[in-house]
Write a structure and sequence with these properties.
- It is a single chain.
- By secondary structure, this protein is an all-beta fold.
- It has a single domain, classed as Metal Binding Protein, Guanine Nucleotide Exchange Factor, Chain A (Beta Complex), CATH 2.170.150.20.
- The protein contains no helices and ten strands.
- Strands 4-5-9-8-7-6 form a six-stranded antiparallel β-sheet, with no helix packed on it. Strands 1, 2, 3 and 10 form a four-stranded antiparallel β-sheet that branches.
Length: 121
């Protein structure tokens, strides 16, 4: 697990904010100015149906990630949201999940949950 912040020079993605990078290929995924609170927190801890514990942080956008697969509501940790996999745009490694709202009234309309141990922070 990685617990250090990587700072970017001013003017480099995120206006000099702290950068979050893929732990597999070191490419930039998002920045600290995109952190968002979902269900009252920006840090979430859940156990998936296979018993695997997941700790992730939530972001409004992740330019260095892409959503993969058909979004599903099955086993969603956020009942108002469907999820699909979030992969690194550069190396295609699994970083977490991309969530999209089920109903038009849900805010935010989408967010990203990036696994703490798959992103250098």
């Amino acid at each position: 697990m990685h617990d250090k912040w990587i700072s970017l020079p001013a003017g480099t993605g995120g206006n000099g904010k702290k950068a979050y990078r893929c732990s597999f290929c070191n490419s930039m995924v998002t920045t600290s100015d995109r952190v968002v609170s979902i269900a009252g927190s920006r840090i979430h801890r859940f156990t998936n149906p296979s018993g695997f514990r997941c700790e992730f942080h939530t972001y409004t956008s992740c330019p260095g990630a892409l959503s993969y697969g058909h979004p599903t509501i099955e086993h969603s940790w956020f009942p108002e949201y469907r999820w699909s996999l979030a992969l690194c745009r550069q190396c295609k490694s699994h970083l977490g999940w991309h969530y999209t709202a089920v109903s038009e009234g849900s805010k935010p309309r989408e967010f990203w949950g990036l696994l703490r141990y798959h992103v250098l922070d």
